[in-house]
Write a structure and sequence with these properties.
This protein is α+β, with helices and mostly antiparallel strands. It has two domains: 97 residues, no CATH class; 45 residues, no CATH class. The chain has two helices and seven strands; from the N terminus they run βαβββαβββ. A four-stranded antiparallel β-sheet has the order 1-4-3-2. A three-stranded antiparallel β-sheet has the order 5-6-7. Strand 5 and strand 6 form a beta hairpin. The radius of gyration is 17 Å and the shape is globular. It starts with 5 loop residues before the first strand and ends in an 18-residue tail after the last strand.
């Protein structure tokens, strides 16, 4: 599918994270705009992938991927630009796509995932525009080298 080198960027910067509820709402908005696809996964670090063709004002079609990776909701654009003009086109397309998604009313859904590093079960759901995130942590964190871990920080 990818003929070029792509790399991702987080949609929410570290200083603007609204928490897991924001991530749950974002997926609801993606589903509202583009429907449910076959990429929805129980792997929290690889929860979904939506390759989307964005048409810019000049009629050019640009491939931008919206996905949920290890850092949460992200987009991916090429890294092997032929020049700064092409880079700017992709950056503008990605920004416009994220704004288009963010402006949607989220669709209702429910998705159970596992964040394997801890491990923790994370259930995302949206109902009537309200996000809900439920997490189940293992009882014995010492087995995972996490004896100082506070589940309330997750």
């Amino acid at each position: 599918m990818w003929e070029r080198q792509y790399a991702g960027e987080w949609i929410y910067g570290v200083d603007e994270i609204g928490g897991e509820n924001e991530y749950a709402l974002f997926l609801g908005k993606v589903i509202a705009r583009f429907g449910r696809n076959d990429s929805l996964s129980s792997d929290w670090e690889n929860m979904y992938s939506y390759p989307i063709i964005v048409e810019n004002g000049q009629g050019e079609e640009l491939l931008v991927e919206i996905y949920h990776g290890p850092g949460g909701p992200s987009y991916s654009i090429p890294t092997d630009f032929k020049d700064d003009e092409e880079k700017e086109k992709y950056e503008q397309a990605a920004k416009a796509l994220v704004e288009y998604i963010q402006s949607a009313e989220p669709a209702d859904y429910e998705l159970e995932t596992v964040y394997e590093d801890i491990p923790v079960n994370v259930k995302y759901s949206v109902k009537n525009g309200v996000a809900k995130v439920e997490s189940e942590f293992p009882e014995d964190f010492e087995d995972y080298g996490m004896d100082d871990f506070d589940p309330d920080d997750f």
